[in-house]
Design brief:
- The structure holds two protein chains of two kinds.
- Chain A is an alpha+beta fold.
- Chain A has a domain at about 5-70: Phenylacetic acid degradation B (Ubiquitin-like (UB roll)).
- Chain A is built from three helices and three strands.
- Chain A has a three-stranded antiparallel sheet with strand order 2-1-3, with helices on one face.
- By secondary structure, chain B is an all-alpha fold.
- Chain B has one domain (about 5-245): Ferritin, core subunit, four-helix bundle (Ferritin).
- In chain B, about 65% of the residues lie in helices and about 0% in strands.
- The model of chain B has no long low-confidence stretch (mean pLDDT about 95).
- Classes of the chains: A alpha+beta, B mainly alpha.
- Chains A and B meet through helix 2 of A and helix 2 and helix 5 of B.
C-alpha cells in the first residue's frame, strides 16, 4: 500500500489532449499523456499527436480538472429526454435558403 | 589537405552535423526516461535527418561526381565527415543529451536564420524550412534545461555535469576557418564569429533561470575539418552497417 502511494506521488500528472485540426472546427479529444506541468504537456502533445500535420491548435487539461457525469446517473440524466419530441424543431417548415439546422 | 571547393565543404558541414546528431538522437528510441520523451527525441532526430538529406543531396550535386545523399551518408569514412565535434559526443544521461541539444540548437537556429539570406538559393530554401523546426528544438531543450537545473538536487547535479561534459566543444561552432571565410565573402555563408554574442545571451538567460553555472572549459575540437574524436567511428559503425555489409542493399 505504501509502495503504491509513493509511486503515485512521483508519477507525473495525467493530461487530456484536445486538438483542433483546422480553423472553424471544434477541438476534439484525441488522447492523454503524462507531463510534469502545462508547458511540457503542450510540447508532449505537439510531439505525440500533431506529427502528421493533424493540428492547428492544442488544448491540454489536467485530467483531475475534468468533472465527469456518473454512469449511474444515466437514467435520471438522459432518459427523460427520450420522449420530448416537441423539443426538436421538426414541426417547422424551413425556408429553402436555410441549409443546415 | 582538402582541395574540394569551399561550397561542397560548407554544405557537407551543414549536412553532416545534422546527420550525426540525428543518429545520436535515434539511439534514444526505446530508451528515453518516459514514453512522451521517447517520441519527442525521435521527432527532433527526424527533423535533423530531413535537413541532412537536403544538404547532402545538394552537396552531391555541387561535387558533380554523381554521389547521392545515400552515398555520402553511408560510404564515407570518419575523416571525410565534416560535422562539428559537439554532435558526435555520446548521449550520456538524459541531462547530457539535453545539454548538447541546448548548445547545438541555440547555435543551429541562428545559423539557419542567417542562411535564409544566403545568395545560394538552395541553401537559403533548406534553411527557410529548417529554421522553424529548430526554433522548436531550442524551446524543448531550454524548457528541459530549466526544469532539470532548477529541479531536485540530483537533477541539478546531473544537468550541470552534462553541461560541463559537452561545453568544451562550443568554441568550434564560432571559429571561422578558410572555408567559412570564403563562403562569407561570397555572400553564401554565415558570419559564425558574429553569432557568438547572440548565442551567449540566450544561453546565459537559460542557464540563469536553470540556476546552472556557465562552464569555462575548452576542448580543441576540429570536427568540421575532419579531425574527429573516437566517438564518430562508433556512430558510423552503426549508421553504415547495412550498406557496408550488404553493398547496394535496398530497403
Amino acid at each position: 500500500m505504501s509502495e503504491q502511494t509513493s509511486q503515485h506521488e512521483t508519477e507525473w500528472p495525467l493530461w487530456e489532449v484536445f486538438i483542433r485540426a483546422r480553423g472553424g472546427l471544434d477541438h476534439r479529444h484525441c488522447g492523454s499523456l503524462r507531463a510534469p506541468d502545462s508547458e511540457m504537456a503542450l510540447m508532449n502533445a505537439r510531439d505525440a499527436y500533431t506529427r502528421r500535420g493533424e493540428g492547428h491548435s492544442i488544448w491540454v487539461v489536467k485530467a483531475t480538472n475534468i468533472v465527469a457525469s456518473n454512469p449511474d446517473d444515466k437514467g435520471s440524466f438522459y432518459d427523460p429526454a427520450d420522449d420530448k419530441v416537441y423539443r426538436h424543431p421538426s414541426f417547422y417548415q424551413l425556408p429553402d435558403e436555410v441549409d443546415h439546422m | 589537405m582538402t582541395t574540394s571547393p569551399p561550397l561542397f565543404d560548407y554544405t557537407l558541414r551543414l549536412g553532416d552535423s545534422c546527420l550525426i546528431l540525428a543518429q545520436r538522437l535515434a539511439e534514444w528510441t526505446g530508451h528515453a526516461p518516459v514514453l512522451e520523451e521517447d517520441i519527442a527525441l525521435g521527432n527532433l532526430g527526424l527533423d535533423l535527418l530531413g535537413q541532412a538529406r537536403s544538404f547532402l543531396t545538394y552537396a552531391g550535386e555541387i561535387e558533380g561526381k554523381g554521389r547521392s545523399e545515400d552515398d555520402l551518408a553511408f560510404l564515407r569514412d570518419a575523416f571525410d565527415f565534416r560535422n562539428v565535434s559537439l554532435v558526435e559526443q555520446p548521449n550520456g544521461d538524459f541531462g547530457q543529451t539535453i545539454a548538447r541539444h541546448l548548445l547545438f540548437a541555440g547555435w543551429h537556429e541562428l545559423v539557419l536564420e542567417r542562411l535564409t539570406q544566403s545568395k545560394d538559393a538552395t541553401l537559403a530554401a533548406v534553411a527557410e524550412k529548417g529554421v522553424k523546426e529548430i526554433a522548436y528544438h531550442w524551446r524543448h531543450a531550454a524548457e528541459w534545461t530549466i526544469r532539470l537545473g532548477d529541479g531536485t538536487e540530483e537533477s541539478h547535479a546531473r544537468m550541470q555535469a552534462g553541461l560541463n561534459q559537452v561545453w568544451g566543444y562550443t568554441p568550434e561552432l564560432f571559429r571561422m576557418d578558410e572555408t567559412d571565410a570564403a563562403m562569407l565573402s561570397a555572400g553564401i555563408g554565415v558570419d559564425l564569429a558574429g553569432l557568438q554574442p547572440t548565442w551567449d545571451a540566450r544561453i546565459n538567460a537559460v542557464l540563469a533561470e536553470a540556476t546552472l553555472d556557465r562552464p569555462t572549459n575548452i576542448t580543441r575540437s576540429n570536427g568540421k575539418q575532419g579531425v574527429h574524436s573516437e566517438h564518430l567511428g562508433h556512430v558510423l559503425t552503426e549508421l553504415q552497417y547495412l550498406q557496408r555489409a550488404y553493398p547496394g542493399m535496398q530497403w
